[in-house]
């Protein structure tokens, strides 16, 4: 393979910090149907274990322990949930204008039912469900929040279809 040729990298996982790990695992498994691939467990600040040493590298030395769980979407994308005992338990103010990650997106063709389920489980609908191409294509989207204030988006169709010019065109 030509080492100078760039190619699209795949998306592996996203890490999300939540105030209550067990409630987050419950929400994401019941509402999104995500698989629990590693149940909630504690990680300790210790140099004697590989995971402890790796977390010291990432977070520094100023922590004692935290909780972590691993989940997976239907297409194999990982969702790594963290809960730190001394972290701020309130979501940051929604400000997409500042640098940084401001949302992730999931996909469900039944957007109306999913948004209603998110709200019924303590989340929030941030906007009406909108059509990208009213009267032309069936693509819809909506911004929501989980019960912890984490903003994400719901699409009815894949990212490629939503932004391609060929799908559903005459």
From TrEMBL:
Keywords from the UniProt entry: Metal-binding
Alphabetized InterPro entries for the sequence: Glyas_Bleomycin-R_OHBP_Dase, Glyas_Fos-R_dOase_dom, MMCE/EMCE_epimerase, VOC_core
Nucleotide-binding recorded as keyword: no
Residue ranges constituting the VOC domain according to the UniProt record: 10-157
Pfam name, any one: Glyoxalase
Record's keyword annotation contains Metal-binding: yes
Family matches, as PANTHER family: BLR8189 PROTEIN, METHYLMALONYL-COA EPIMERASE
Protein name, UniProt field: VOC family protein
Organism of derivation: Maribacter confluentis
């Amino acid at each position: 393979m030509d080492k100078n040729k760039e190619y699209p990298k795949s998306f592996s996982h996203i890490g999300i910090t939540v105030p209550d790990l067990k409630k987050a695992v419950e929400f994401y498994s019941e509402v999104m149907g995500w698989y629990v691939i590693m149940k909630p467990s504690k990680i300790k600040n210790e140099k004697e274990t590989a995971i402890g040493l790796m977390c010291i590298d990432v977070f520094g030395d100023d922590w004692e322990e935290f909780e972590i769980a691993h989940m997976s979407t239907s297409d194999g994308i990982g969702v790594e949930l963290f809960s730190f005992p001394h972290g701020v338990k309130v979501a940051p103010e929604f400000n997409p204008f500042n640098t940084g990650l401001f949302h992730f997106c999931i996909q469900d063709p039944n957007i109306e039912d999913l948004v209603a389920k998110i709200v019924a489980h303590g989340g929030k609908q941030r906007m009406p469900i909108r059509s990208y191409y009213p009267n032309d294509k069936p693509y819809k989207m909506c911004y929501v929040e989980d019960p912890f204030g984490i903003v994400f988006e719901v699409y009815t169709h894949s990212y490629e279809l939503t932004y391609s010019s060929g799908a559903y065109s005459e």
